[in-house]
Design brief:
The protein is built from 5 helices and 14 strands. By secondary structure, it is α/β, with parallel strands linked by helices. The chain has 2 domains: about 170 residues, Spo0b-associated Gtp-binding Protein, Chain: A; about 170 residues, Rossmann fold (3-Layer(aba) Sandwich), CATH 3.40.50. About 5% of the residues have low confidence.
Length: about 350
Amino acid sequence: MKDLARIYIKAGDGGSGKLSFRHEKFAAKGGPDGGDGGKGGDVIIQADENMENLVPFNFKKKYLAENGEGGMPKKMHGKDREDIVVKVPVGTVIYEVGEEYFEKNLRNRDVFEELIRERRMLVDMDRHGKEFVGAWGGRGGRGNWHFRSSTNQTPQEFEPGTPGEEKYLLLELKVVADVGIVGLPNVGKSSLLKALTNANPKIAGYPFTTLEPNLGVATVHDKRIVLVDVPGVIEDAWEGKGIGPWFLRHLERVNTLLHVLAPEPTGLHLEGWEEQLIGDYKIVRKELEKYGKGLAEKPEIVVVNKRELVDESEREMIGREFEKETGKKLAWVSAGMGEVADLVSLLN
């Protein structure tokens, strides 16, 4: 799911007023009759629930409205131009940025962080049908007819149209979901999303398979629940490691966090798994706290995937120790085997 895009928008310039005088058969030296120029088209941004991502902006990056028509003789007004509409997914936040950022590589961490500091938020397109005028069209200039007076019967003055606004914009799609799935890489977040929903994320047994957010929809007792799976977060992510922090912004809108853990299949047993699961939990919690913006305060469900690796009796003891240390209860699932009933009941 493409979640960042940069576009250039330019509203139409206003049409120029007309310098003109009446020249008719019986009025060879008629008065001024220059008409006004038309208004340039606006660029309107509209939220559309039928758009899922920002991929269309890979192919079209410039949106230009038409200039207003110039004024004409006989006090005829130039045509106002139609506005153009740029549709974006619901959940897109619009920022104005400097021209210098239009072509820079945002995968460069220093560039990205500089952009985040310098950008200026314009609007949050948080509901279907919401509209925002990204760039206003220029006003048409007045024709010389407006400048006549008792002492100036042949005015040479007229006004050019005013320029339409132009802006360089950063579009940032923040997923609108009910539940955000977080955890370290390779704990089975994408597998869990697939088991719960009809999503089809890329799945493999190595870290960072998920390179962009994945969405899925689960239906629990006729209730529709939207889940988003973001790339794995690793320790010291904000010191430049891993890719998860780039995508934590997608969790800002969710109501609940689904924190996924998994025992490492490395011959550990009861005591080792207790320490590993508690340690992994604390790593992710620390990164959520560093990110801020209320993520660490959101309601949280903690689930352990790959439960088939741990005997039932050991699960109970691990659960007690985990709750004692963190204050959180554990739910146990096996995404690979489709055994997610305990989690489904919690989501409901």
